[in-house]
Amino acid sequence: MKHTVIAWMEDKPGVLNRVAGLFRRRNFNIESLAVGHSETPGISRMTFVVEGDGRQVSQVQTQLAKLINVTEVQNVTDEPTVIRELVLVKVNADSTNRAEILQLADIYRAGIVDVAMDSLVIQITGPEDRVNSLISLLENFGIREMVRTGRVAMVRGNGHSVNGKH
């Protein structure tokens, strides 16, 4: 089963390396990893997705919480969450198929962020299944390049925020 875990950590050199090392030592593959600043100055928020059973993920969560500079860890897999991913896709586009690609982008509420004579760069943000569906359709035109952020997640409503502030 895939688990989504969020860790809050101090913005200090080497923290990400220690977190990745913990996963490596436990023989866990990090399927996706997104890190950025949080609403609290000096604290970064890391969202990662790993595959494993509940016991394994719980052990990793406990070990993560013990790391220096990690202030809090939360497994949000079973929480009501908003989960999104951002993807940029460069797809082959010429005069014969450009209108069709633009129509697909519009249907999926994706945006065109770059236009060239022979390609388009499409940006889509949304749940993974919607993102995957558009990518699958764009493969028919030839994907030249793609980058994905991986999952980012936030507990809905009055859920968790860093340092227990709601």
Question: Short summary of the structure?
Answer:
This protein has four helices and nine strands, in the order E-H-E-E-H-E-E-H-E-E-H-E-E.
Describe this structure as you would to a colleague.
By secondary structure, the chain is of the alpha+beta class. The chain has two domains: 2-79, ACT domain (Alpha-Beta Plaits); 82-152, ACT-like. Chain A, domain 2 (Alpha-Beta Plaits, 2-Layer Sandwich), CATH 3.30.70. 27% of the residues lie in helices and 40% in strands. It is built from four helices and nine strands; from the N terminus they run βαββαββαββαββ. The strands form two sheets. Strands 5, 6, 7, 8 and 9 form a five-stranded antiparallel β-sheet that branches. The protein has a four-stranded antiparallel β-sheet with strand order 2-3-1-4, covered by helices on one side. Strand 2 and strand 3 (43-51) form a beta hairpin. The two termini are 29 Å apart. 22% of the residues are buried.
At CATH level 3, the topology of the largest domain is Alpha-Beta Plaits
Strand coverage percent: 35-45%
The biggest sheet amounts to: 5 strands, antiparallel
How many individual β-strands?
A: 9
Rg, Cα atoms, Å: 19 Å
CATH class of the largest domain: Alpha Beta
Helix content estimate: 25-40%
Q: How many helical stretches? A: 4
Q: What's the layout of helices and strands?
A:
Blueprint: E1 2-10, H1 15-25, E2 30-37, E3 43-51, H2 54-66, E4 70-75, E5 81-92, H3 98-107, E6 111-115, E7 119-126, H4 128-138, E8 143-148, E9 152-155
Antiparallel strand pairs: 1-3, 1-4, 2-3, 5-7, 5-8, 5-9, 6-7
